[in-house]
Amino acid sequence: MAVAVRPGQKLTVDEVCDELQIARSTFYDWRQKGRGPRCIRLPNGSLRIRRSDFENWLMDCEDPS
Question: Where is the Helix-turn-helix domain positioned along the sequence (predicted)?
Fold first, then answer.
């Protein structure tokens, strides 16, 4: 799936879950265990993930073999 990337783009939890094809519960489980991407908590309690943080997190998840 092609993703249009804007500089400074912020993703919602649903967008991250859709891209990774995971359930929201999996995302929150990873977050609780400190294994998920860095998040920004907005004043209304919603989370956003910077595209750059998400991409860096994905690179860190790569298997070196």
Answer: 11-59
Query: Are 42 and 48 within 8 A, CB to CB?
Result: yes
pTM listed for this prediction: 0.83
Beginning with the edge strand found earlier in the chain, give each strand of the sheet holding 40-41 in spatial order: 10-12, 47-50, 40-41
pLDDT digits (tens, 9 = 90+) for 20-61: 999 999 999 999 999 999 999 999 999 999 999 999 999 999
β-partners of residue 11 are 49
| C-alpha to C-alpha distance for 41 and 28, rounded to whole angstroms | 13
Amino acid letter, residue 2: A
Tokens representing residue 39 in the block: 């998040």
Q: Tokens 């998400």 — which residue? A: 54
- Provide the token pair at 13: 């939890």
